[in-house]
Amino acid sequence: MVFATTPSYDRRASASLFSRLRTAAGQANPFPIYAELLARGEVVPAPWGGSVVTGFAACDGILRSRQWLEPDKEWRERQGPGTRWNAPSSREMSNTLAALNPPDHTKVRRAAGTFDRGTMERIGRQVNRTADRLLDAFTERIRTGEADISQLVCEELPVATIGDWLGLPQADWPRLRQLTHDQVFTQELLPSASQLALSDAATAELRTYFTDLVRDRRSHPGDDPITRWIQTWDAIEPDRDKADEAVYFLVLFVLLAALETTATLLSTMTLRLVESPERWGLIADNPDLVPGFVEETLRYDPPTHVISRVASQDCVLGGIEIRRDDMVHLMVGAAHRDPARHEDPDRFDPGRTPGHLAFSGGIHYCLGAPLARLEAQTLLRQLIRRLPRLTLVRPPSMAPRVAFRRLLNLDVALA
Ligand code: HEM
């Protein structure tokens, strides 16, 4: 098949939209920019190469199709030395579950297991206790003036939940949380050289921490998931060093996948609550809407706005020619506002029929989705049940990211 070259004016025209997406104003509210992108077609060429997909049906179809692959280790090597894909942090990530393709993915995902009902009930009781404790402290603070609920509550609940579950010493939680914030840049849309360097350093520290932890857990087994993963891998992999390495990559990825994303969900959900007294009233009077409120938060402004895949073969997508190995960036944050999928998509409506890609789709569907939902629903129930009405003091500042949303503060006061 011979391809015509994609017209260069297309790339130039979308370049200014992407520049706006990388400004502070664009990150505070990327949705008008997404609407402009979507108006140009559900697939548009990206100025830096590859394509950007903003239509819901196209994103959904790609996630479920075997024709589209994760950018795995071999793909990253093919991009050449000196590219971001061969930075040490990127090479490390290429060994983790979300960067594997079948058959490796199938094997590693099976070994990871799932959250069964008993585990969820046990974690649920723990999450309830932690949320209670955090809100006790928050209630004390808010009586004396404004307080940052993002730092005091939303950033704390996920690290306590994962820390308890994995059996990580509490003294290490703040450092691990900081390292996940630094590490994320290697997974960003277009990381700068200094962001990549930060990510490389964080990755190296996390490697040392978790390889030591796995070694320690092997000599002191307990009743915890890391011990169970060691037992599972020992049954699959006769080489103990390789088994420990497999467990290390799983624990590393679980921590990275679980902390920021969940903290962002909790902060964004709380923002939706405090920015509108009518909304607070609606949910307080109708606690049955709690699960719908969480799902709508995930649709309206998901923690991860971009998921990437590469083409396993030449094809045409939305009228755009794609070659094997080309990358497509699925702008799920934009796809969630696609009017072809959701009526009046810019309206926050906890009663709407759910439908989002916040947890991805297909074989890489988020392993931790039940846990993230549990934390968000627990926090929301407690917020509306036991807190006095709160109001937003100032709009939050956003971290300078496109793919991984992060509220740097959420300052609230008594209403
Ligand atoms: C609101 C919170 C969360 C969001 C928005 C989220 C989002 C995602 C997304 C988008 C993917 C797929 C990436 C891809 O398709 O390439 C993913 C995969 C994954 N997530 Fe989550 N996640 C969240 C919480 C968690 C938690 C709490 C855990 C662990 C306890 C977790 C563990 C994982 C794992 C292990 C994968 C890899 C699955 C695979 O590749 O087969 N996530 N997550």
Topology:
Elements: H1 8-21, H2 24-28, H3 31-39, E1 43-45, E2 51-53, H4 56-64, E3 68-69, H5 73-78, H6 88-93, H7 104-112, H8 117-142, E4 147-148, H9 149-154, H10 156-166, H11 173-183, H12 193-219, H13 225-236, H14 240-274, H15 277-285, H16 290-300, E5 306-311, E6 315-317, E7 320-322, E8 327-331, H17 332-335, H18 369-386, E9 390-392, E10 411-414
Parallel strand pairs: 2-8
Antiparallel strand pairs: 1-2, 3-5, 4-10, 5-8, 6-7, 9-10
Helix pairs in contact: 8-10, 8-18, 10-14, 11-12, 11-14, 12-14, 13-14, 14-16, 14-18, 16-18
Bound molecules: protoporphyrin IX containing FE.
Structure, described:
This protein has 415 residues and is α+β, with helices and mostly antiparallel strands. The chain is 55% helix and 8% strand. The protein is built from 18 helices and 10 strands. It has helices spanning 8-21, 24-28, 31-39, 56-64, 73-78, 88-93, 104-112, 117-142, 149-154, 156-166, 173-183, 193-219, 225-236, 240-274, 277-285, 290-300, 332-335, 369-386, and strands at 43-45, 51-53, 68-69, 147-148, 306-311, 315-317, 320-322, 327-331, 390-392, 411-414. The strands form 3 sheets. It has a 5-stranded mixed beta sheet with strand order 1-2-8-5-3, sandwiched between helices. It has a 3-stranded antiparallel beta sheet with strand order 4-10-9. Strand 6 (315-317) and strand 7 (320-322) form a beta hairpin. Helix 8 runs antiparallel to helix 10 (156-166), helix 11 (173-183) crosses helix 14 (240-274) and helix 12 packs across helix 14 (240-274). The chain is globular and about 55 Å long. It starts with 7 loop residues before the first helix and ends with a strand. 42% of the residues are buried. It binds protoporphyrin IX containing FE. The site of protoporphyrin IX containing FE (HEM) has 24 residues, from helix 14 and helix 18.
